[in-house]
Each structure stands twice: as C-alpha cells, then as structure tokens.
Write a structure and sequence with these properties.
It is a single chain. The chain is α+β, with helices and mostly antiparallel strands. It contains 13 helices and 31 strands. Helix 3 runs parallel beside helix 4, helix 6 runs parallel beside helix 8 and helix 12 runs parallel beside helix 13. The longest helix is centred in the middle third of the chain and has 17 residues. The N and C termini lie far apart (about 65 Å).
Length: about 625
C-alpha cells in the first residue's frame, strides 16, 4: 500500500482528513512517493510563503512546488528523480527567510553529519512470519509470558574488525542468542533516524526512517522476520512527546510553530534540549498516529514502548518556567486526550499488540481502558519498584533491616496497574554503576545479590524487562560506543550467573503460575514480608498449579524455617540460587519435603525448609494427596 502510485490518491481529500486529525495512514501520500515515471513530493508546510524542491535531480536548483488549495500542503511531480537521490525542501517563511528542511516522511536519510533525505520506497519484502502473526491474533497478550531483552542496536556486539554490525548482521547473531537464553521479546531502543549517537535514539529527526548508521529499512524487516520465525516478538521504543530541535528537521518547520506548541514555554523542553509536540493540534495527531501505524503495519513490530509519558501528561514535568491550565492545574488535558486517541486507534487496527507506558508518577489509570477514563495502555513500567528495590540493594547490609519497607511497599499498590518490572538502560549510565557495581561486598556476595534481585523480579506478578548485559554480570556501566563486556564470561562467577539467568528464564516460560494470572488479585498470596524473609505463593488458573517463592535478604541461612502450604503432600525445590552451578556454594540441593499438619501463614499444612543465605528458593508440589 505504501508504495502504490500516488496518482491514484485524492490528495485534497486525504489532506482534509489529515487536517482533522483523522488520517492515520498519512505516510501513504505525504513525502516522496512513486508517480508515473518519476516521484511526487508532498509536504505539509501550512504557513510557508513558498516551498521549492531541491536535490541531486535538479543540481540543487529550486523547483517551485504548488500549493494544494487550502490544505497547507505543497506538491510537485519530478520525473528526473530516482531512487538514491538526495533532496530537501526549501522553505520560505512569511518574512522571506529560506531554509532547507528534511522530508518528515522520508524513508531514508543520509548518515550524520550529512542530513539530506533520500529518495526511496518501501521494499517489497518477502515476509515469512504469517504463522507468528496468526498465533499472535489468537493470544490474550497479557496472559502470555513476556520476558523482554532490551537492546541498543550498535553496542550489543561489534564486528570482528570493530565496526558496527548492520541490522541484518545483528539479527544473525542476536536472535539465536535471545532464543537460547529464553527471552520472549527483544525491545530495541529507538531505531528511527537521529543525528546524535549520544542521545541513544531518543532525539528523533526522521520518524519514518531507520537510522542509516544502523542499516536500512529492508534490514530491519529482515530482523523482525527472523525474530518472528524464531518465535521472538519485537518491540520498539518510540518518542511521541518531544523531538530533536535541529533546524533542518521538524523544528519550526515552515518558519512558525508547526509541529511544536505555539507557546515558547510549552514548546521548549529544557531537560532534554528538545521541542515538545503540540499534542492538541490535529495535524500532529495524524502525523504521530500514522507513524505508530507505519511501524506496526509495514514493519510488523509487535508493540511499542512509549517513552516519557509523564512529559506528555504534566505541564510542569519539565524544569521551569511552566504554563498551567486555566484552572491552575498541571495536567496536560491535550496530552491525555491524544494518548487516549492514539491507543484507541492503534488497538482498533491491531488489537493484538502491546502498548507499554514508560511513566514515572502515580497518575491513575495508565492501563485502564479508555472507555473507563484510563489511558488505555496494556502495561506500565513500574518505576517505583525499580527505584525502591535498587535503593535497597545499594544500601549497606548493616542498615538494610531499617529499610525493608523499600521491598514490601510494593504489595500496597501492586494491583493498581498492569505492571512490567523493568531494569533498563537508564539504571547503568551517568555514574550510577553497573547492576553488579551497585551490590556491596566481595564478588561472591555481589553475584549472590544479583541472583536474588533477578529471582525477586521474576517471581512477582507482572511482565519483565532486562537491559542487555545484565545477564552476564557486566562490570562497567553501559557505554553506547562500545560492545558489551563479553570477555567477563571467562571470569569467576560470570558464566555461572549467565547460566542462572537462562535457567530462571526457562522456569518462567515453562510454569504458567508465574505469568498466566499476573493481573488478577488471586495471582499471589503473600505469606511473609518482614526483614529479612519474603515469601509468597504464585498461582495459575488452576489453584493447585502453584510455586512458593522464598527470598532471604540476609547473609545468614535460616534452618528449619516453617512455611505454610495449601495442600497435603510432598514438595520439591524447583530453583535454589545458591547451587554451585549458578555460582553459589551448595553442592547438594534440598531433599523432597513432606508436609505436616501445622497452621502457618494461614495455611493448614506446613513444610520445614532450610533457606540459604542471600538466596532465592522456588518450591512446587511434587505430589498432592487427596483429602
């Protein structure tokens, strides 16, 4: 559809819908599209005095474009243009000033520091993921195991000569690795075109293009296709709240606030040095929702993680100055309405995808349906849990008993939203230390605590995300220019720790008590949550399908610890994080445990358990006797 001849499209009618905020496939007619023997170029610049096309095909001499009636669009057919030509739009504002701008809808741009758009079309890719897409349509997404591996495209691994792998080369090594490790999804930090590597892709200029330094759109299609063939979902980070302010891109596109707010205060994002999209403008709605639809439809991704949702919800989220509502409130009503509209339209077109909010406040209803007044996301990153839990582990063990509330406070609000527990790239940058470096003590104790942290996250009801490198116990902070420290796997503890994560992932996907019932209150029964022991039971749809999750946050083992269980029978250890194979010191695991009649933790029966120091135990029924 996106590569059809544009001469069959009624541009005036399409632009009318675009201006009403109702055109969610605007990438099919705006930008550079094949027509007759050449290409038609169409750009929205409603307040420009004139617009010309410049490019290789005209030796960069201006070709005046025609105003498309009262639509705000300018268009021109160029028979000389061919695939691979560089081009820009020369925008003349109402004061006679001119500037050359990129095409907001271009499918390809030059690699920085060059910045022209490139004439291109979507390739006719031979997709072979029909089985995956068909199975996705028949699944209830939130009842599935979702264990995400977050990836930055050029720093996961380098080629042998030190250069960046392109997306196809990356696919050939990353996907088998993710499959072997037992993750269910890969989430890519933004792959859209951006000029600055140090922004990690979060300051976008070309929303419809794959960053040239990463590869081509066809290579991204290849990656998604191969992932789906391997049974791996692909999620993508997306930034609809703010955009790069480089003058050749979207910034004040026609010489006036075009994509950004009219108010300089509301348009300016001080914290990130960017510009905020005007989320109350109809045309911005069409642009952004069309962009999400583009990645979901044309590139077959399985979901979107929406970055910086808080910045879209609050008028005072950024550093000052601020402009509040007419009633003095700080809620950006336009932002709320846009998000609701976005999720409504996306789920109308793709009811089987994931929409995930990275939102850091206690705003209510992030994952509630729009028709109930919520924002309509599937999932919300639990930023509070992440901050509290890492603060606990970074605390000197001597003082941890006074801060156990950092761990058990979660149980007060854990059912308020559909949570994803995320330990992302943000936790290992800017002097925060690596995940391993946050842990006090010697190497043995550090890895014991890492195993405990990961076992805790996996046991809690909700979906999971870990940043690349966490699974190997990387020593240093993440550096976007360098590959992961794969050499650490030759050091003591690291390879054992990687084996532990692989085992943990396998347990997660093979035991539905750990994921099937995540967002129901009956998914978990908390037995104990006082320093230093935390115990809860996870339940699947069938009540006898259960796993008892036991955590010891002290460096002292607990002998003959009596734990209540719901059924008479025998119980066995599913996971013991202190086994030697995982880097611990236990050579022999616990024996099968027989229940006794004893009321503990509001259960009729009990088992006595030896709980290793700083450990995770998962225990499940081996045999349940009839009453």
């Amino acid at each position: 559809m996106a590569t059809m001849d544009i001469t069959s499209i009624d541009l005036v009618s399409e632009m009318s819908l675009f201006n009403q905020g109702l055109n969610f496939r605007s990438y099919e007619f705006l930008g550079c599209k094949p027509c007759d023997e050449g290409f038609c170029f169409t750009v929205w610049a409603p307040h420009a005095k004139s617009v010309s096309l410049v490019g290789d095909f005209s030796e960069w001499n201006p070709l005046p474009m025609d105003a498309l009636f009262e639509t705000g669009a300018w268009t021109l057919r160029c028979d000389n243009a061919k695939i691979g030509d560089c081009y820009k739009y020369r925008i003349e504002d109402q004061f006679g000033h001119t500037i050359d701008k990129i095409d907001p809808y271009a499918l390809q741009h030059e690699v920085p520091p060059k910045d022209a758009s490139i004439v291109s079309v979507l390739p006719k890719f031979a997709w072979k993921d029909a089985t995956w897409l068909r199975s996705r349509r028949h699944k209830v997404q939130l009842n599935q195991a979702i264990n995400v591996y977050e990836v930055h495209a050029t720093s996961w691994k380098k080629a042998e000569d030190g250069r960046d792998l392109n997306l196809q080369e990356l696919a050939d090594v990353l996907i088998p690795y993710v499959k072997d490790m037992g993750y269910t999804h890969i989430e890519f930090m933004p792959v859209m075109d951006h000029p600055l590597d140090a922004s990690w892709g979060y300051q976008i200029t070309g929303y419809f293009a794959v960053a040239g330094r990463y590869g081509t759109v066809e290579q991204f299609m290849y990656l998604v296709n191969e992932a789906h063939k391997a049974g791996i979902g692909v999620l993508l980070d997306w930034v609809p709240g703010h955009f790069n302010r480089n003058e050749v891109a979207l910034s004040y596109y026609d010489g006036t606030p075009t994509y950004e707010y009219q108010s300089h205060i509301r348009a300016t994002n001080v914290r990130w040095g960017t510009l905020n999209f005007d989320l109350g403008k109809n045309q911005v709605h069409s642009f952004l929702i069309s962009n999400a639809m583009f990645w979901l439809k044309e590139l077959h991704i399985d979901g979107i993680r929406v970055d910086a949702v808080s910045n879209m919800l609050y008028l005072d989220y950024d550093e000052g100055p601020h402009e509040l509502n007419e009633d003095g409130g700080n809620i950006n009503r336009e932002g709320v309405q846009f998000i609701q509209k976005m999720n409504t339209e996306i789920f109308k077109a793709f009811p089987d995808v994931l929409m995930i909010a990275e939102e850091s406040t206690n705003y209510q209803g992030i994952t509630s349906p729009v028709h109930h007044g919520g924002l309509g996301f599937n999932l919300k990153w639990n930023m509070g849990w992440m901050n509290d839990t890492l603060r606990y582990f970074e605390t000197d063990p001597i003082y941890r008993p006074y801060h156990f509330d950092l761990l058990n406070f979660l149980f007060v609000y854990m059912h308020n939203e559909n949570y994803m527990y995320a330990l992302s790239h943000d936790e290992v940058v800017h002097g925060k230390h690596s995940l391993l470096g946050k842990m006090p003590g010697d190497r043995y104790k550090q890895f014991a605590q890492l195993r405990l942290l990961q076992g805790l996250m996996l046991g809690l009801p909700g979906k999971k995300l870990n940043f690349m490198g966490y699974e190997i116990g990387q020593f240093l902070e993440w550096r976007f220019k360098d590959e992961l420290e794969w050499n650490v796997l030759s050091y003591p503890h690291n390879s054992e720790y990687k084996h532990y994560i692989k085992t943990l992932n396998s347990i997660y996907t093979s035991h539905n008590a750990l994921y099937l019932n995540d967002f129901e209150t009956e998914a978990i029964k908390i037995l104990e949550a006082d320093d230093p022991i935390m115990i809860f039971t996870r339940y699947g749809k069938i009540h006898r399908d259960l796993i008892i999750c036991i955590y010891n946050f002290s460096f002292e083992e607990k002998k003959d610890y009596r734990i209540g269980v719901p059924y008479r029978g025998t119980y066995e250890v599913l996971l013991n994080s202190e086994m030697q194979e995982f880097g611990g010191c236990w050579q022999q695991n616990l024996e099968v445990m027989e229940t006794q009649v004893s009321e503990n933790h509001n259960e009729t029966y009990a088992i006595d358990v030896l709980i290793p120091s700083m450990s995770v135990l998962f225990i499940k029924p081996k045999r349940i006797y009839k009453e």
